[in-house]
Design brief:
With about 325 residues, the protein is of the alpha/beta class. About 20% of the residues lie in helices and about 30% in strands. It has six helices and 14 strands. Strands 7, 8, 9, 10, 11, 12, 13 and 14 form an eight-stranded antiparallel sheet that branches. The protein has a six-stranded mixed sheet with strand order 3-2-1-4-6-5, sandwiched between helices. A hairpin with a 3-residue loop joins strand 11 and strand 12. Bound molecules: guanosine-5'-triphosphate (GTP) and magnesium ion (MG). The site of magnesium ion has 5 residues, from helix 5. The site of magnesium ion (MG) has 5 residues, from helix 5.
Length: about 325
């Protein structure tokens, strides 16, 4: 029988069989070296489509990059909003939970941080209450599924399994099955969102835009016309009477305030939004921007990057 790498779930090759992990995981774990994999997103979707609708699904999404996919085919879902540690402490968990409850149809929502071991006791007791034999962790790539499962293993089992995690997309390549008490947890490869900024930047920029600690929101008082430039990725032109915008983005990202006439990044494709009061603009996997009052904004960015408006999260 084929043996799987315990780090990423890929089938081990002949020369890897004497270890429990593949060469790719070894290099990623020990040297931080990343090798792009050419697996197809449809393989990953297939895994999710094959989950029995009566098993328990833990849907993992990061709070900074909140995305909720269609989960209506599953009867048992816990939505886990993770990376709580990167949102400001002043934000109340209940507000976020209410937001997700009001905008999507889920009963069971938990706010956690795997890294800070926050709320994992609550989560595991919730999971146990479902009394299911199989529990799948699903969600977008990089949402934090494997990090969460590692923490559950560390906290609640005797096993020393250590699944490979990284800031790079597609770290987990196939399912990884781990028993915790009598429950079989199954980690899955994350779905790649083609609208995510992470597909269009190099690893140096990826490092920069990945928040490592609490994000310090950056607020700009805005009046009249003006522009902000985020690295060499996004330009925002605004036009408003009197307003304020707050950007939730990794602290290491550079944001430049420039005059409207400054041509920086104006060569990128432009999208226009006519926002009502209390809206966010989301630039997928880069940031979200809170606007207090309605205004007109133009966003210049690679056309493939999904930019959209939503109600204020915070
Ligand atoms: N700050 C913070 N970072 C986290 C947390 N959980 C995961 N991360 C980071 O998020 C990145 C992705 O984590 P993974 O666990 O590899 O994500 P994944 O969902 O398994 O990704 P795929 O295997 O590609 O689907 C890594 O850099 C983690 O360190 C958390 O609670 N807080
Ligand atoms: Mg993973």
């Amino acid at each position: 029988m084929n043996r799987k790498c315990m780090g990423c779930g890929n089938i081990l090759k002949d020369d890897e069989l004497e270890h429990n992990i593949c060469n790719r995981c070894f290099r990623l774990k020990h040297y931080g070296e990343y090798h792009v994999t050419n697996k197809d997103n449809s393989d990953y979707s297939k895994i999710i489509n094959n989950i029995d609708s009566n098993d328990l699904v833990i849907y993992v999404t990061s709070l900074l990059n909140l995305t909720i996919m269609d989960l209506s085919k599953f009867n048992n879902v816990i939505v886990v909003l993770t990376k709580r540690d990167i949102l400001p402490k002043s934000v109340k968990d209940n507000k976020i939970i209410d937001y997700v409850k009001n905008h999507y149809n889920f009963k069971d929502i938990e706010v956690i941080s795997s890294i800070k071991n926050y709320n994992l006791d609550n989560l595991i007791s919730k999971i146990e209450k479902y009394n299911k034999k199989k529990v799948y962790l699903i969600g977008n790539t990089n949402s934090g599924k494997s990090t969460l499962l590692n923490k559950l293993i560390e906290n609640y089992s005797e096993s020393d399994i250590d699944i490979t995690t990284s800031m790079y997309p597609s770290t987990t390549l196939d399912t990884i099955e781990v028993k915790i008490n009598d429950i079989e947890f199954i980690d899955t490869p994350g779905i790649i969102d083609n609208g995510s900024v992470i597909n269009y930047i190099d690893s140096k920029m990826l490092k920069k835009i990945t928040p490592k600690k609490e994000v310090k929101p950056r607020t700009y008082q805005i009046k009249g016309k003006g522009s902000l430039v985020i690295e060499d990725l996004v330009r925002i032109d605004y036009e408003t009477n009197d307003n304020s915008m707050t950007i939730y983005i990794a602290n290491s990202v550079n944001i430049l305030r420039v005059g409207e006439a400054n041509p920086r990044l104006k060569n990128l494709p432009k999208r226009e939004f006519n926002l009502e009061n209390d809206k966010d603009i989301v630039i997928t996997d880069l940031c979200f921007i809170k606007f207090v009052k309605g205004l007109k904004v133009k966003i210049y960015a690679n056309n493939n990057i999904n930019v959209y408006e939503r109600d204020n999260l915070i």
